[in-house]
Please model this.
Amino acid sequence: METRVAIIGIILERKDNVDKLNSILHEYSNRIIGRMGMPYPKKAINIITIIIDAPQDEINTLSGKIGKLSGITSKVMYSNV
Model:
């Protein structure tokens, strides 16, 4: 199956679902190329970037699962490769 490289941007506005987020990311760990997290105390948020190589439907499913968590926003940007 054809895969695509994508970046998933995640913003955590509340930390009460961090365990659920990490559990979801662990489900896709075999597809994740890299992960970078950064707190932004000035706005009381955390920003996470996930780089993933997977079929487009898996990427969309992952982003959708993350986006359903309360206090967490998720958006995807795809490469053309």
Notes: Helices lie at 18-27, 56-67. Strands lie at 4-12, 32-40, 45-54, 72-78. The two ends are 14 Å apart (CA to CA).
